[in-house]
Structures are given as C-alpha cells and as structure tokens.
Specification:
With 427 residues, this protein is mainly β. The chain is built from two helices and 29 strands. Helix content is 4%, strand content 46%. The strands form six sheets. A six-stranded antiparallel sheet has the order 23-24-25-27-26-29, with no helix packed on it. Strands 1, 2, 3, 4 and 5 form a five-stranded antiparallel sheet that branches. The radius of gyration is 26 Å and the shape is elongated.
C-alpha cells in the first residue's frame, strides 16, 4: 500500500475515558448521555465527532480490537477510491444486547452523512483493519470476532464498500489472525491459526483474490499448545518468519517458528530444540532493535539440577534463527523477577554462570573456578545497611554491590525492569 493513498487517523479519548477503560477491547463512554468524544485535532475531525453526537445512541461505547496493532475507534479513509472520504466508527450499542457495530459516514459537500450501520454479531472486535488486500487500489474492511459463545471459533469477514453498500465478500473461521506484507509478494497476506486445542491445529497463509480467500500453504501445529502471541519479523538471514508463542501445560511455553519461503510456510527447528520448549513463558521479540526477532529459551544453571522447579533460577537465553534452523546466541541474562532487575552476561561467560542466593542479594559465579563475576544486593530506601556502590534505584529500593573493584561482568550489564525505573547509574 502506498502511504499517500492511506489516511488513517486514531482519534483517541484516553484522557476522558481512562478511568472507565474496560478490560479487553473497549472503553466506556458516559452511560447517562452521549459517548465520550474523541479528541479532535483538526476541523475535519471536529466535524465528525460533532456529527457522531447526533448519530450514536446514548450510552454507546467506542471499541478497539483486541488483537490489532492499530488501537483505533475511528478510521478516516477513501475506501472505494471515489474521491470521497469515509469515516468508519467502531462502537457498541449497550441497549441492543451489547452488539458491536461499525458505522460508516461519507463526506459530501463538506459534511459527513451516515450511509451504513452494520451489526457484526460480535460483542467486541478481536481484529479490525482497513487494507487493500488484492492490490487493486480499493480497501477491504477486515473484521474478526466471536459470533456465539467463548467455546466457538472466531469468524473472519472481508467486506467491500460498493456504491454506498457494505458487501460481504469472504469469511472463514480462525483462532489467531495477522495481516502482513511479505517480501516479494505484491499484496498483503493473511496469516491465521485454526483448529481445536488438543485435537488438531494448523497455521495457514492465504491470499485474497477475486473476492475469495485462497490458501497458499499450511503447517500443522502442536495440538496441545494454546497460541498466546504471534510475532512477525525477520530471521538472521533476512528471510521472514512468524513466531507463535503458545502456552503448554500448567506453566510451560512452546515457540513454533514458521519461515516464509517463496510464499510458503516452512517450519523451523524440531522437538529436540530446547530453546523452543521452555519451562516458563518467554516471548519472542526484537531484543536489541536490529529488526530481527529473537526466540527465548532457558536452562538450569549448575548446581540446581535436582532443585524443585520453583526454586530454580533459570538463565534466559535469546537466539537468532535462520531459515535452515541454525541459531546464534544473542544474549544470556539472569532475571530477578521479584526484585525487577536483570543482569546480562558478556559472550565469554555464556553457559558458564550459576547463581548463589544470599539474604537480600545474589551473586553470579563462574562455574569453572567459583569466581564471583557479579553481585547485586538490595535494601529498602527507608532501611539501613547499604554502604556499597549503587547500581540503580526504584521508587522504594536501592540496588548496590559491596565489591569496590570492577568484576568480570561490568556494572553496565545491570538493568532495572518495568515502570518502577527512576535512576539507573549503571546504564
């Protein structure tokens, strides 16, 4: 899609609706009057929000889609390329069994007029996008959600605006959905997973041609795994792939990597790859901002082989993969979830570090000689006992070390996690 053909605006109402934010995909407006207005940043947007006050029912709720990257309730675009802008609005009518709707306004003579109001059958949107799926310059509306109960499969629908009528062109079941423009492919591809957990699950790559969803390739997935997150990105050899991170059993995670080669899905790795099967959740992500997605794994450090699972301080490892299944270590780290910090290791210590716990602290030790390579202690800010070199601080905790000299793992390998971050003197 060309950027100059696409004008998508997110009209947010965060400030007005934050306190009423609903879990899942929606936020609630004023239930006693009109919906909370989105923030208007231009005259055109102000005209739309003013028009919506007279169109939307009292107590309506704006919606955004759970699984879409674009968290938007109003899209402004010329969907049928007739020179007239359409405003597409996602909302829920709380008086109508909480049906999710999408409403279409069309620009005419400087004003916006309602031309369509579609009941979706969903209570909320799982997926929503406005995208040119077949490369003809006109935009399709792609929606997804659950039509009946939570045990039923989700349904994907593709619509086209034709002479002010919204026409359903294609549909099918799915569990997880992603639309992406892959290299060397003229139009965006639809990637989805489908099937029944514990019975049969598959991943499928589809194109949209002649008003139909056409299957290009499919791969069987582990039927025992429940997909939680799908991440699309590059491999280390510039090939593209999809990383499916799935829950397995009580607390384990399985990562299934599907490369895309010549428009077909190719499964990367095998059951013996311990990176892909891990004891606890560790999601795939671009760890270092280089555009390559890393898959995470973990291993038991020396001395903890017979420890109870909950007592093992797993060492996390992130790898770059190639299409042929080969991998390279990008990072190893020790993570202290309870204290919200982690320590990364230099490459010469990969596979060589174990953990020694202390009261209010931890030491990382070289397994080959017992040398302490890093130390972190912590104390509450209103407490006593901190006398060493400060590594970092949060709102209520000071992290420090009693070692005065630099250790084999330098202090800039210490990092704080999350929103508690205030000061990190070591980064």
């Amino acid at each position: 899609m060309k950027k100059n053909n696409k004008k998508i605006l997110l009209l947010s109402a965060i400030a007005a609706a934050m306190a009423a934010y609903l879990s899942g995909c929606s936020y609630s407006g004023d239930q006693t009057g009109f919906i909370q207005q989105p923030k208007a940043d231009s005259r055109e947007e102000a005209d739309i929000t003013q028009k919506l006050k007279s169109i939307l029912p009292a107590g309506a709720e704006y919606l955004t889609a759970d699984s879409s990257d674009k968290k938007q309730s109003i899209v402004l675009d010329d969907m049928d390329q007739d020179g007239k802008q359409e405003a597409l609005v996602l909302y829920r009518d709380t008086r109508d069994n909480k049906q999710a709707h999408f409403l279409i306004l069309q620009e005419k003579d400087g004003d916006f007029t309602k031309i369509w109001d579609q009941e979706t059958g969903f209570s909320s949107f799982d997926y929503f996008d406005v995208v040119d799926l077949d490369g003809d310059g006109k935009k399709e509306i792609v929606t997804g959600g659950q039509v009946s109960g939570p045990e039923s499969p989700k349904q994907l629908f593709v619509y086209r605006l034709d002479q002010n009528q919204l026409v359903e062109k294609a549909s099918r079941s799915y569990e997880n959905l992603l639309i992406r423009q892959f290299k060397g492919v003229q139009s965006p591809s639809v990637f989805l997973t489908d099937g029944k957990p514990e019975e049969e699950q598959k991943a499928e790559l589809l194109s949209y041609e002649s008003d139909q969803l056409k299957s290009l390739s499919s791969v069987e997935l582990d039927p025992q795994a429940v997909p939680e997150r799908i991440t699309a990105g590059e491999l280390a050899d510039d090939a593209e792939a999809l990383f499916i991170d799935s829950g397995l059993g009580a607390h384990s995670m399985l990562t299934e990597i599907l490369g895309v080669k010549d428009g077909k899905l190719v499964k990367i790795g095998d059951d013996s790859d311990r990176t892909l099967m891990k004891e606890y959740p560790l999601y795939s992500r671009d760890l270092n901002g280089d555009g390559i997605i890393e898959a995470g794994g973990m291993y038991i450090p020396n001395g903890y082989e017979d420890a109870a699972m909950a007592e093992i301080p797993f060492i996390q490892v992130y790898y770059d993969y190639k299409l042929d299944g080969s991998k390279t270590t990008v990072e190893e780290r020790y993570v202290q979830e309870g204290q919200h910090f982690y320590v990364t290791f230099p490459s010469d210590l990969y596979g060589m570090v174990t953990v020694k716990s202390m009261d209010q602290g931890v030491q990382l030790v070289n397994v080959s000689g017992g040398e302490v390579v890093f130390e972190v202690k912590w104390v509450k800010k209103d407490g006593t006992g901190q006398s060493g070199t400060i590594l970092g601080e949060t709102n209520d905790t000071i992290y420090y070390t009693d070692f005065k000299n630099e250790l084999p793992v330098s202090r800039d390998h210490f990092h704080l996690m999350g929103e508690e971050y205030e000061i990190n003197t070591g980064s």
